[in-house]
Amino acid sequence: MNKTPSQFERETVAGLQRRSRRAFLTAAVAALAGAGISKWLNIRPEVDGLASPFRKAMEFNAGIARRIFRERALAPEFAQSKAVRSFRRNGDIGLSEIRPEDWRLQLVGVSNPASYAQYSRDVSSWTYGMNASSGAAPNLHATVAPKKLSMHEEDAKGAAVKMKAMEMPEDMSAGVPGLLLTMADIRKLPHVEMVSEFKCIEGWSEIVYWGGVRLRDFLVAYPPQRARDSQSAPTERATAFSKYVGLDTPDGQYYVGIEGEVALHPQTLLAYELNGQPLSPEHGAPLRLVTPLKYGIKQLKQIGRITYSNVRPHDFWHEQGYDYYAGL
């Protein structure tokens, strides 16, 4: 039997009402479930700035990334013609206007540091003169320091920027022994070039032409404790080192930690050139970290200190709740 228009309209309205009620009940149940989950998450204990379920999820993802971070996991490299002419600036936390001649790389954790000409009984006492444009007037390289001071320490008098105290597990009340390296020391190591994609955690990326030294070559030249006296080959000695490398800016305001696998990766560089020219201050002069399998937040600019450690170093963005490993 054919339905009249009025019957059809009534049935249609009734059907819509039933569906609306079901949709409302479904939405209400979903909202209550969401509220319950949110409340449950809010009462979960925090781990490194995140609710523990989120932190566990990040650690799970990081575990997968770390397992594939081997030499076979190489980032794509490109022709120099693909590199951008003007690399985008990304962040300036920790960047100081220091004069290039006042810069020193503080190296902590090297084996038998007193055997090197660049030895300092307390690298943390090193301070930096400001760039001439800042108006500061630090004294220039002084005459030979008295014997009670180690190499370079006399240069630091009257300088303007000093790194904050180190966070070290052992007692360092007597000072932090290590090396104070210059760019001349860095440039003595094998020079390499790499054109790779720089990826920012904000979602943008650019292809960049870098020049510098592999961090693994740096580790061979300045091996960590317990590695230098090994009878194995130089590269093997470098791989037998601490689990982590910590890097800080000269003022200590920005800092990252990377795993040993990252430090030894063939595409991890201590870069001092961009597009064949020395780094500019906004891109981390005189020395920065480059590792294309990590986001830009891990590629610290203007390195002031490198620390070898078996204890995971502190990390600026990890303290803000981000993944410590921040890999791709």
Q: Can you count the helices?
A: 6
Order of helices and strands: HEEHEEEEEHEEHHEEHEEEE
The CATH fourth-level homologous superfamily of the largest domain = Oxidoreductase, molybdopterin-binding domain
The termini sit apart by 65 Å
Shape: elongated
SS strand fraction: 15-25%
The CATH architecture name of the largest domain reads: Alpha-Beta Complex
Q: What is the CATH class name of the largest domain? A: Alpha Beta
CATH topology heading of the largest domain: Sulfite Oxidase, Chain A, domain 2
Estimated radius of gyration = 27 Å
Describe this protein's structure.
This protein is of the alpha+beta class and 328 residues long. The chain folds into 2 domains: 5-63, no CATH class; 76-320, Oxidoreductase, molybdopterin-binding domain (Sulfite Oxidase, Chain A, domain 2, Alpha-Beta Complex). The chain contains 6 helices and 15 strands. It has a 6-stranded mixed β-sheet. Mean pLDDT is 77; it is low at 131-159.
